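[Automated response] Your request has been received and processed.

Submitted sequence:
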Amino acid sequence: MKLTETIYAYPESGVLDSNTYVIRGNPGVIIDPGSAQTLSLLIDDLRKDGIDPKEIGIIANTHLHIDHSWANTAFRQRSGARIVLHPLQKRFYGVTVVETTRYFGLPPVEFQEDFCFDDDRLKVGDTEFRLIPAPGHSPDSICYYCQSEKVLICGDVLFNQNSGRADLPGGSAAALKESIECLSELDIAHLLPGHMDFVSGAELVKGNFEFIREHILPWL
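Generated structure:
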């Protein structure tokens, strides 16, 4: 599904999956490939939008919980893309990949990154994203913000009328509240979360932050 001139969105499908986002450019980027079990469906959807997986050179994640990163290695094998981590994701790999998966009684699905970001910017052709640490749901949560397109890819920090949970290993309700408040100050027209519906329209995004502030944050 094409959202902007360069950004495409693919809703989650099945268990242990997440919403996936693709940024077309040179190199193309996929954020949160999701479940390895539904990867073939995702690739079919990419091709319906005219996107060849081999156009994608970078695999990135909002955080490394299994429902977001399980397909990292499988997508690398299908596309030739390289897995890149934020330094916080490298630092907290053991917490988010290993401890959190075991928390749910599942075996960890580990992978090896190819390199780490060396600054807080991701350039895809002429489009630039700022990488914003947003801990709370997980200690390694990173949001991808494009000011020119007013897009925020926010993982599980917040959703449509909800926030991420803060009770998983490495989680912090206080940090999650602070992260959401900081993100609410950005100029956003497309709020793209890790699960459930997208929120498009600046006023709707603003209203969503207000709803979360009033109805969700007091209960964290």
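Summary generated for your ticket: Residues 1 and 9 are 5 Å apart (CA to CA). The mean pLDDT is 97.
If you did not submit this request, please reply to this message.
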